[in-house]
Amino acid sequence: MLKSTLKYLGSLRCTIWLLVALIGVLSIGFFLPQRSLVGKVAYQKWQQASPVLAQIDRALDLTAIFTAPVTLVLWGFFFLNLLLVMKQRIPLVLAKVNVDPEKALERHGKAPFSYTVELSEAALEGVPAALAAQGYQVHGDAGRFFAIKNRRSPLATLVFHLSFFLLLVGALILFYSRFTGFVDVAEHEPFLGELSRYNASPELPRSGGGPPEVKFLLESVRPEVSQGVATGIKIVLKDEAGVQHEVDINQPYKTGYASVLFNDLGISPLFVLQDAAGKEIDGAYVKLDVLKGKRDHFRMQGYEVAAWYYPDHVVVDGKDSSRSDEFKNPAFHLEVTREGRPVASGTVHPGEAVLLDNGLRLGFMEQNFWVRLLVTKEYGREFIYAGFVLALIALVWRLVYYRREITGVVRESASGKVLELGARGDFYQALAKDEFDRTVAALCGAHR
Amino acid sequence: MAYYEAICFWLSLVIYALSAGGYIYALVFRNEKVVPKLLVLIGIGLLVHTGAVAARYFAQGHFPWSTDYENGLMGGWFIIASTLFVAWRQKSLRVFAVATVPTTMLIMGYGVMRNPSLAPMAATLKSFWLAIHVFFAWLSFGAYALAMAAGVIYLLKERAAKERGQAPAEPVPDRFADLSPERLDDLMFKYLVFGFITNAIMIAAGSIWAKDLWGAYWSWDPVETWSLISWLMYGAAIHLRVTMGWRGTRFSWLMIAALLTVIINFFGVSILMKSSVHVFKMS
Ligand code: HEM
């Protein structure tokens, strides 16, 4: 039983079924909402709307299909099958690569394409050299030879399939060494890589260890928005050595194995509380999440301030609104309360203030930005890149520079000497024949 | 759509429709002599189509490579261009347009029904790796479409051969006489191989891009997943052929079915757009 199972697991029929099963399982991720993509709230809603499916889901983990037990088991079988098949193939491939010219010549009569050409004695002598000029390695002499092109190409089958193991090793190292955390940093604020500065719960490496040693000062943030589409964001960071680094979408700050990526943008205005004489009582850069019409609030000296933001402020029919998402004319609408009692409200542009009780003024002095940065660190990229590069080289090597073999034997005929050629190529039939026809025509043409 | 773009787009669609009509006529009435003339028509269609791409490029200031409409526009361009390219290299392959022109019309038609409005290039799309990713996606799409076309011609030829077998003794000319079934079979594999390699480059470049955009090489987002699915599908097809000896009829049907997974993938990019623009939660 075990023997036959192992035998099946080492078969190419099993490979096909595994590929079909993987395609099927991965497709589930496309048709069923995945928890990691839709978020918790949407997922719970879906659970309520489809209780039967939800029950199946709890049993099979279909809404986290990419890490579900069934998927992992399939991947396990996939790599097991790959290992077993490749183990069987290694000697076969090596034998194919180190082909014995004599053995190849024994198969001369069985070649799929055969030609008989009449050539002069001198022309016959020149055939091996002519084939060599076409990229063939020629063994033997003009009377009996074996010519082969891209002899080592079958090795690429091993290289291609074994590159999957490099990707697997890379993926495992990435998975176990990965740190990810979000941190909110405002303009002019330093970040020293402390774990406590990260939002909520950063994901620590599963293999142990802490956050990466990433230290910088956030010098400036300049978002670019055009016709409502984010066209870029220029973030300048200064590292410990005082070197500036620009971060943009698609352009993280990379240091060693760590990367710092832009994730989200917020407004960080400087609000200052002044007394009647203009003396500053309090002031702070507050990080507000107010883009896209969201309301946020902050506290200052016992005042509770609710804030709405208009990046391109206009008043339409007596109401505040924004002409666009571009930061052309920023303004805040503020509603200030104290112990639940309304104190004041008003809309302010930079340099303007809302008058509170007791002659105090809450001034909007300056508009800065804060950014949510995604800090990641993971090892293993060398394996991933090596896997990609090897896989691609091997594919081209095997499928484009595929192998061609020609055997040639000179025989005596009534009219003199004739050259019998037998040819075979990997993968193709009609197209290979075209190519061999051309090769043979060239041999004849060159020696007429 | 920009003004000249709209004119060129619809005009090219009309030209493709006319040539598709011509092909249907050629097939139904078995008059394959008109095929070379139709190819000239398609050539004119591609010129006008190129005009639409150029007009959009100038109106937006960047290559059209993001929305469903732009994918339809460019994917269609690559399919027609590869059809003409192979027909130019080898006359007998002119008939591939029978399958590729209607496919192009479908994807362009679907695209234009979605979102043809002009937009500046989203920040998420300004990336060298994305450019490589998209370019190879188009190349592989064109090649897979040709593999499908070779499959369609194979099936048509096979059907004609069957009918001939049952028909009375009078001689019936061979369908697409200068393309033997063996040649079509090889061509399917050749295009499949080209598509498979360019598809692999597309996936590798896409994941390097994802690392810079999202911080991870692979996040199982729908587009990544689907592109892996269609690559595995073509990988399985290569296996079926190389290790299980699938050829001819079965392989033709496989090439037609596999193209569907690629079309789904192609238009799935709009989902990627949604989630990637989402990164910059402002638009
Ligand atoms: C368990 C997994 C796999 C096993 C055991 C396996 C095994 C093999 C073997 C033995 C061959 C050589 C056939 C021959 O030359 O006679 C082959 C060919 C091939 N396989 Fe796989 N394969 C696996 C997965 C994959 C996957 C996932 C892909 C890509 C999607 C793939 C792509 C190819 C390609 C392109 C060829 C033809 C080129 C060549 O011979 O190397 N294989 N496979």
Short description:
Chain A: InterPro entries: Cyt_c_bgen_Ccs1/CcsB/ResB, ResB-like_domain. Chain A: The chain crosses the membrane at residues 12-32, 62-86, 155-176, 383-401. Chain A is an alpha+beta fold.
Looking at this protein, list some descriptive labels:
heterodimer, A: 448 residues, alpha+beta, TATA-Binding Protein, 4 domains, six-stranded antiparallel sheet, 21 strands, 35% helix, B: 283 residues, mainly alpha, Four Helix Bundle (Hemerythrin (Met), subunit A), 2 domains, 76% helix, flat, binds protoporphyrin IX containing FE, Cyt_c_biogenesis_CcsA/CcmC (chain B)
Structure description:
The complex is a heterodimer of chains A (448) and B (283). By secondary structure, chain A is of the alpha+beta class. Chain A has four domains: 1-94; 99-151 and 403-446, TATA-Binding Protein (2-Layer Sandwich), CATH 3.30.310.50; 175-263 and 373-379, no CATH class; 267-367, no CATH class. Chain A is 35% helix and 35% strand. Chain A contains eleven helices and 21 strands. Chain A has helices spanning 2-9, 12-31, 35-38, 40-49, 51-60, 69-97, 101-106, 121-133, 155-177, 381-399, 430-446; strands at residues 113-118, 137-141, 144-149, 179-186, 190-191, 216-226, 229-239, 244-247, 253-255, 258-274, 280-285, 296-300, 303-310, 313-316, 319-322, 331-338, 341-348, 352-355, 361-377, 404-413, 416-425. In chain A, strands 4, 9, 10, 11, 18 and 19 form a six-stranded antiparallel beta sheet that branches. Chain A has a five-stranded antiparallel beta sheet with strand order 1-21-20-3-2. In chain A, a hairpin with a 2-residue loop joins strand 20 (404-413) and strand 21 (416-425). In chain A, helix 4 crosses helix 5 (51-60), helix 6 (69-97) packs antiparallel against helix 9 (155-177) and helix 8 (121-133) crosses helix 11. The relative contact order of chain A is 0.14. The mean pLDDT of chain A is 90. By secondary structure, chain B is mainly α. Chain B has two domains: 1-121, Four Helix Bundle (Hemerythrin (Met), subunit A); 124-282, no CATH class. Chain B is 76% helix and 0% strand. Chain B has helices spanning 3-28, 35-60, 68-89, 97-114, 128-166, 181-214, 222-242, 248-277. In chain B, helix 3 (68-89) runs antiparallel to helix 4 (97-114). The longest helix of chain B has 39 residues, at 128-166. In chain B, 52% of the residues are buried. The model of chain B is unreliable at 271-283 (pLDDT under 50). Classes of the chains: A alpha+beta (448), B mainly alpha (283). The interface between A and B is large, with 61 and 57 residues. Bound molecules: protoporphyrin IX containing FE (HEM). Protoporphyrin IX containing FE (HEM) sits between chains A (12, 15, 18, 78, 81-82, 85, 89, 156-157, 160-161, 398-399) and B (231-232, 235, 238-239, 242-243). Protoporphyrin IX containing FE sits between chains A (12, 15, 18, 78, 81-82, 85, 89, 156-157, 160-161, 398-399) and B (231-232, 235, 238-239, 242-243). Chain A: InterPro entries: Cyt_c_bgen_Ccs1/CcsB/ResB, ResB-like_domain. Chain A: The chain crosses the membrane at residues 12-32, 62-86, 155-176, 383-401.
